[in-house]
Every structure is written in C-alpha cells, then in structure tokens.
Amino acid sequence: MADYIGKGHRLVMENRETLALTGIKKVQSFDPKEIILETELGVLSIKGEQLGIKQLNLEESMVDIEGFVSALIYHRGTGGGSRQGLMHKIFR
C-alpha cells in the first residue's frame, strides 16, 4: 500500500462492513457513528453504526475501518475542513 503515498486516494468497501482507504492524511475525529478523515482529495465523513478503526498507518497513508457503513460524504475543499471554510467566509 505504500505506493499510494502522495498519489491520490483509494477507497475499497466490502459488503458495507469493511473499508480500506489510502491517501489518508489525518483522522480528524471518530466515534461509533461517524469517522471523519482528511484525505488527499479532501475531507471524508463515514457514517454508520458500530464503526471502528481496525488499522491505522499514517506513515503509509492508510486506514482500515469496520462496522456498518450507511453513508460516505466528501466535503468541499481540502485540508482544514468545512469549519475553517465557514469561519473564513464569515470574517472575510
């Protein structure tokens, strides 16, 4: 998986129960109902039930997640996430 570092983002989901992702920069937050990741292509929210991080290796830019996945949502922008963007718009 190390060959994906800096080369983009890949997501493989099996039966809505496991996810293998590459191109991960940072885990912004996680709990059993939502995991928020900063990826090479922006912020990704994974929503579901009984979500957990099975394996995390930021040196290789990868994460494996298990649980029941109900939604995958990519947010606009990259890096700082939508909160930073909203504050920037308000106080411009």
Automatic annotation (TrEMBL):
<protein>
    <submittedName>
        <fullName>Sporulation protein YabP</fullName>
    </submittedName>
</protein>
<dbReference type="Pfam" id="PF07873">
    <property type="entry name" value="YabP"/>
</dbReference>
<dbReference type="GO" id="GO:0030435">
    <property type="term" value="P:sporulation resulting in formation of a cellular spore"/>
</dbReference>
<dbReference type="InterPro" id="IPR038705">
    <property type="entry name" value="YabP_sf"/>
</dbReference>
<dbReference type="InterPro" id="IPR022476">
    <property type="entry name" value="Spore_YabP/YqfC"/>
</dbReference>
<dbReference type="InterPro" id="IPR012504">
    <property type="entry name" value="Spore_YabP"/>
</dbReference>
